[in-house]
Amino acid sequence: MAPPLTGSLVDGELPSFFTESWTDFYRRTAICRESLARFRTIILHHYLYHRRSFSWREEISPYRVLVSEVMLQQTQAGRVASVFDRFIDAFPEFRSLADAPFARVLGLWKGLGYNRRARYLQEAAARVAGEYDGILPDDPDLLVSLPGIGPATAASIYVFAFNRPRAFIETNIRTVFLHFFFPDETEVNDRRIMPLVERTLDLEHPRDWYYALMDYGVMLKRIVGNAGRRSSHYQRQSPFAGSDRQLRGRILQVLLDRRIVEAAELASLLDEPSTRVDRLVAALCDEGLVVRDGAVLALD
C-alpha cells in the first residue's frame, strides 16, 4: 500500500525514515553530503510508490524517445500521451516518418501545438535515416545538431534512449531543486542549480533518476504550486486566445481541411485582417510549414 501524499511528504519528511522534517534538517545542515543523500532518498521513495506510467517509458527505443522528447517540449505529458501511440502506429520508425507527407504528420500532431516541432521532428528523422542508417547517434554533440534539438533536449534524449548519465535541467527538475534547495529565494539562475543536478545524478541508473525527479516535480506543482516561478528563467506565457499562435494553428487547420487554398481568400475564410494573415503566412512559409506556389498555399 502506497503512503498518502501528505503535506509532510511534500516538505520532504518521511516519518518512517526520519524524525526531522526536510525544512528543519536543511536549515541546520545546508548543502552537504548528508543533505544530498537525504534528498535522493526522498525523491526515490516517492518514485517507488508514485511512478507515472507512459507509453514511451514502458517501451523504450531511441526512436520512441526522440519522438516523445520533441513532443514534450512545452507540452504537458497528458496531452502527449493522448497523441503518442497513434503517431507511433502511423510512423513506427525513422524512415516512415521521414518519407511521410507533411500534411499527414501535421494531422497526427494535432492537439500538441507549436506545430513547427512537427516539421523539425520530420527533418530530424530524415537526417537520422539518411546520415546514420536509421540509427540514432548516441552522442549528445551529434544529437544537438538535429533540427529542433537544443542542448537540454539532446541531453534528455541521451539519458532516456541510452540510459547514460548527463546533467540537464527542464521545468519539473528545476521545480524540485528550487523547492528543496532555494526555498526562500527568487530569480534563481540555472547556473546555481546545475552543480546540484550534477552532484545528485545517479551514474548507474540515470534514466530512472530523471523520471523520479520529473514525477516529483509534477506532484509539487499540483500540491504546493510552481516553484519554477522563482527561477530567473521563468516566463509567463501570454494568453492563447486571440494570439498569433492560435491564428497560426487555424491557418494550418484550413490547409489540412482543404489541402489547397488561394492565398487571397484565406483571410476571409478566417475572418481576420488580411495584413495579419499575410504576415503569419509569410512566417509559416519561411519555417517550411506552408508552401506557396504562385497564388496558392498548401502544406506540401
From TrEMBL:
Domain HhH-GPD: 71-219
Catalytic activity: Hydrolyzes free adenine bases from 7,8-dihydro-8-oxoguanine:adenine mismatched double-stranded DNA, leaving an apurinic site
EC number: 3.2.2.31
UniProt cross-references to Gene3D superfamilies, sorted A to Z: Helix-hairpin-Helix base-excision DNA repair enzymes (C-terminal) (1.10.1670.10), Hypothetical protein, domain 2 (1.10.340.30)
UniProt keyword Heme, yes or no: no
SMART domains to which the protein is assigned, alphabetical: ENDO3c
Stored Pfam families: HHH, HhH-GPD
Keywords: DNA damage, DNA repair, Glycosidase, Hydrolase, Iron, Iron-sulfur, Metal-binding
Protein name according to UniProt: Adenine DNA glycosylase
Superkingdom to which the source organism belongs: Bacteria
Family annotation (PANTHER family): ADENINE DNA GLYCOSYLASE
One GO term of the biological process aspect: base-excision repair
Task performed by this protein: Adenine glycosylase active on G-A mispairs. MutY also corrects error-prone DNA synthesis past GO lesions which are due to the oxidatively damaged form of guanine: 7,8-dihydro-8-oxoguanine (8-oxo-dGTP).
Cofactor field: [4Fe-4S] cluster
GO molecular function terms listed in the Swiss-Prot or TrEMBL record: 8-oxo-7,8-dihydroguanine DNA N-glycosylase activity; adenine/guanine mispair binding; iron-sulfur cluster binding; metal ion binding; oxidized purine DNA binding; purine-specific mismatch base pair DNA N-glycosylase activity
InterPro entries linked: DNA_glycosylase (IPR011257), Endonuclease-III-like_CS2 (IPR004036), HhH-GPD_domain (IPR003265), HhH_base_excis_C (IPR023170), HhH_motif (IPR000445), MIG/MutY (IPR044298)
Family indicated by similarity: Belongs to the Nth/MutY family.
Sequence intervals crossing the membrane: none
